[in-house]
Write a structure and sequence with these properties.
The chain has a single domain, classed as 3-Layer(aba) Sandwich (Rossmann fold). A hairpin with a 2-residue loop joins strand 1 and strand 2. Helix 3 packs parallel to helix 5, helix 4 packs across helix 5 and helix 5 runs parallel beside helix 6. About 40% of the residues are buried. With about 230 residues, the chain is α/β, with parallel strands linked by helices.
Length: about 230
Amino acid sequence: MSGEPIISIHHLNKKFPMAGGNFYALSQINLSFQTAEFAGLVGPSGSGKTTLLNLIGTLDRASEGEIKILGKELGQLSTKEAAEMRMKVLGFIFQTHNLLPIYTVYENVELPLLLLKWQASDRHKAVMKTLDWVGLTDKVKSRPPQLSGGQCQRAAIARVMVKGPGIVLADEPTANLDAENSHSVLQTMKRLNQELKTTFLFSTHDEKVIRYLDRKITLEDGKIIEDEIQNK
């Protein structure tokens, strides 16, 4: 992989005021990610990995330093511009699938395209293609309460991928799944990463997830202590 990084982070700090000084949740983070990486921020609870994921996702702002996505400095974006970045470039997968229970799988996956004002025929084509990618074409009329945990998480992945995001941020995406469903979900994400050249960045301490990563970035007390390519 070469060329301009899709994400670049320079001298990043995130601090919170405390009695007697500041607490640094992140300290002097320097990282870059290329298109189509399958990487993870790894470390124990409190290491700063979710904080860093939230900063990259424009859900929070850095105290110092900069993050650029596709060359745009996140700290300089207006609230509206940050929302547009989340809508068009970023996708989010969380521990809980956050599907709307009263809507069918099809309707849940279609929702981002409605917000983006896609034409009906284009929406239908994209939704069906994405559901085929994640193996849920037989569940288009089902509602989340009728699905297994793994199927719900795959539907959540479809909802993220349907708009073709350049970057997917996944915060402990298998935390609520058993081993079999975890592997199914991870295999789905790995396949989408390879076929669509989407950059996936995880926050995790789950060994099952870590084994799938091509690159493992270990954080401890808000600092990067290791950044390694994993040989499979």
